[in-house]
Design a protein that fits this description.
Glutaredoxin, 5-stranded mixed β-sheet, 9 helices
């Protein structure tokens, strides 16, 4: 019994330590504003609530919500710190600037270039809204600019009590992908999204076409160069096993593909665009491209391997 109590206490202390570490990560993760300023949530703890919004220029609902986002900032900006976070995938600094200018956004904006913010705040899909009260307790997490969001903003703006959500959501860690053969064989990692061929059709048509054509070209290369260790990796954004299966059936991919549920593999290789293919030799990157069809340099590099 004594040993059991010791084990239980150890587990509790371990859990508390993990929670503290995660909370510290959340409070101290650097947010680099496009103006050059560096801020963290800890800068506002005890001073004012914080509202974070993740978005992308190619995300239709995100763009529809932008007038609401700016309107809420004009209404509550004096009492709540608004921070606009561009996802940093298939968007350039110019794309971000265009959206800021088009909607007259006046809150601080950052580009999540390295994916650190998405990882820290357990980003699960655009648009993504997070509200923290003055003590940095999570009080709202969702995808819609709706009445619930507006009510939470109104309450925290006047320091009224709002029911806290469990910060445990930020403790959840998916295991990192294990990719066999990277150190032993020439390897090609193909990063894409199961939806980029159709979701981007209206907002980024050229990218959507490239997603389709590149996947088909990838299929051909897998069959043509069997000595290469080919790996298909898809983003976890809006993607589950059934979505991956549908994608496999649509493009008749020779590989089933892996979902990067932790997003650590995308971050490790600094993937900024869907699709991206990276060639590795002895585990080191030797070439990358986001356009596979008619890419003579890519074919030459593969044949050299």
């Amino acid at each position: 019994m004594k040993n059991l109590k010791v084990c239980v206490i150890a587990v509790i202390l371990s859990s508390l330590a993990s929670f503290t570490d995660a909370s510290t990560d959340i409070l101290n993760v650097p947010i680099h504003i496009t103006s050059g300023e560096r801020i963290t949530l800890s800068d506002y703890k005890g001073k004012k609530p914080v509202y974070l919004k993740f978005w992308a220029s190619w995300c239709g609902p995100c763009m529809k919500e932008m007038p609401h986002f700016q309107g809420a900032h004009e209404k509550f900006g004096s009492s709540i710190e608004f921070i606009s976070i561009n996802l940093g995938i298939n968007d350039s600094p110019d794309d971000v600037k265009s959206v800021v200018e088009a909607f007259g956004l006046t809150m601080p904006t950052t580009l999540d270039d390295d994916g650190k913010l998405a990882q820290t705040f357990k980003f699960i899909g655009t648009p993504y809204h997070l509200i923290f009260d003055k003590n940095m307790n999570l009080v709202h997490r969702g995808h819609k600019a709706n009445e619930s969001l507006d009510n939470k903003l109104a309450l925290v703006s006047t320091d009224k009590d709002v029911g806290h959500l469990s910060n445990a959501v930020f403790l959840k860690n998916e295991p990192e992908l294990v990719i066999a053969g990277v150190e032993d064989r020439p390897t090609a990692l193909f990063f894409t999204a199961t939806w980029c061929d159709w979701y981007l059709k209206d907002t980024k048509p050229a990218m959507a076409i490239n997603c389709s054509n590149s996947q088909r070209e990838f299929n051909k290369m897998v069959n043509k160069y069997p000595r290469i260790n080919w790996v298909l990796i898809v983003s976890s954004l809006w993607t589950g096993e059934s979505d991956l299966e549908d994608y496999h059936n649509k493009f008749r991919t020779p590989l089933q593909g892996l979902i990067d549920k932790s997003n650590k593999t995308f971050a490790k290789y600094s993937i900024k665009d869907f699709p991206t293919l990276i060639l590795l030799k002895n585990g080191a990157e030797i070439y990358r491209t986001s356009e596979l069809p008619d890419n003579t340099l890519l074919i030459k590099r593969i044949e050299d391997l």
